[in-house]
Design brief:
Layout (H helix, E strand, L loop, with lengths): L4 H25 L8 H15 L8 E3 L6 E5 L5 H9 L3 E5 L8 H7 L3 E3 L7 H13 L3 E4 L29 E10 L4 H4 L8 H9 L4 E10 L6 H17 L1
Parallel strand pairs: 1-7, 2-5, 2-6, 3-4, 3-5
Antiparallel strand pairs: 6-7
Length: 246
């Protein structure tokens, strides 16, 4: 916290207030309801993500038609992706199981109805696909990052096809998105994207010290629905690459 310590402390306090109010809000809008659904939790998450992105003076710039249901396929640059996408539209996220155990953020992810994937247990894929299918059938927008990990934004990694079964030949609409970050007082790949050997808290503290973070999110619909998952993965990646270079 050597650089901009007062900015970091102020933003941490602000973040703490958002977390506290989010917990209280969850008790009123979601907890204990017999008709609770992931869609309701997604709307709860959106309200608080819209507040959280303001900590970074971030107002996402959106290009294209924002989807409201179905499956959304996106590139993945780090934990900020969830705040940005959720601030734009209510969504249910599919995330690696490790996130479940992150302090504070993991608790929020679980409360928001996140579908967790344990990459060490391939036999779990069927159960995860069933959860994704259920969320889609409930009318939710489900966000999937098929790269399986995050990057520094210079490329889009090959897409893994294992979790695309609910999309293959199904009736639910499919959309694609490409996220890009910029920062004036630093480098987006190092200071905004969370990838490689980054450690969560040092990275977050550094990010909180940045003056302003800019995010651009491009959306597009995806019309083809091949029944072969691997072919679908290739086509979806091609569409994300088109958005990236547009």
């Amino acid at each position: 916290m050597a650089r901009h310590p007062f900015r970091i402390i102020g933003r941490l306090t602000w973040l703490g207030w958002i977390v506290l109010s989010g917990l209280v809000g969850f008790l009123f809008c979601c907890a204990g309801r017999s008709n609770d659904s992931r869609s309701r939790r997604a709307r709860w998450l959106q309200r608080h993500c819209r507040r959280a992105v303001k900590i970074f003076r971030l107002d996402p710039q959106v290009e294209g038609q924002v989807p409201s249901r179905g499956l959304l396929i996106s590139n993945h640059l780090g934990y900020l992706d969830i705040l940005v996408l959720s601030s734009i539209t209510p969504a249910v996220f599919v995330s690696k199981r490790d996130v479940k155990y992150w302090p504070v953020f993991g608790q929020f992810a679980s409360m928001a109805g996140t579908v967790y994937v344990d990459r060490e247990r391939r036999t779990q894929v069927g159960d995860v696909n069933s959860e994704i299918q259920q969320a889609l059938d409930d009318g939710a927008l489900v966000v999937l990052f098929p790269e399986g990990t995050s990057s520094g934004g210079d490329r889009v990694l090959p897409f893994k096809s294992a979790l695309l079964q609910p999309a293959a030949g199904q009736r639910h609409p499919i959309s694609v998105a490409c996220i890009r970050y910029d920062v004036d007082d630093g480098n987006a790949a190092d200071d905004v994207c969370y990838w490689g050997d980054d450690t969560f808290f040092p990275h977050m503290l550094n990010l909180l010290g940045k003056h302003t973070v800019r995010a651009t999110v491009r959306f597009a619909s995806f019309q083809a629905t091949p029944t072969d998952r691997k072919e679908l993965a290739r086509q979806l990646r091609d569409e994300v690459l088109k958005l990236k270079t547009r």
